[in-house]
């Protein structure tokens, strides 16, 4: 699955989301390319525990989590949390 497609799925299914997806491992023809990492920033995460934030991302990816994506490392932030992290 293409990184841009993953970003689009997340951004189109989570309110005002900004997603940056990468491959945390080097490419390996033995399916290592199915491993992704994502930083997702959205006001939809406000007041939700980390588990629920991650569930929103998994829900946005739908069946791709069982067919095209083997693993997804997630970092989720509200816009305020992300801004405070950069200071």
UniProtKB/TrEMBL annotation:
List, alphabetically, the PANTHER family matched.
Answer: BOLA TRANSCRIPTION REGULATOR (PTHR46229), BOLA-LIKE PROTEIN 1 (PTHR46229:SF2)
Q: Which SUPFAM superfamilies match?
A: BolA-like
* Spans traversing the lipid bilayer: none
What the record says about family reads: Belongs to the BolA/IbaG family.
The source's domain of life comes to Archaea
Instruction: Name the chain's protein.
Output: BolA family transcriptional regulator
- Species of provenance: Haloferax elongans ATCC BAA-1513
């Amino acid at each position: 699955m293409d990184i841009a497609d993953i970003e689009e799925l997340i951004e189109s299914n989570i309110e005002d989301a900004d997603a940056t997806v990468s491959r945390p491992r080097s490419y390996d023809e033995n399916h290592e390319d199915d491993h992704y990492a994502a930083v997702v920033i959205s006001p939809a995460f406000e007041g939700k525990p980390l588990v629920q934030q991650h569930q929103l991302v998994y829900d946005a990816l739908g069946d791709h989590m069982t067919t095209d994506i083997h693993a997804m490392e997630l970092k989720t932030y509200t816009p305020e949390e992300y801004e405070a992290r950069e200071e």
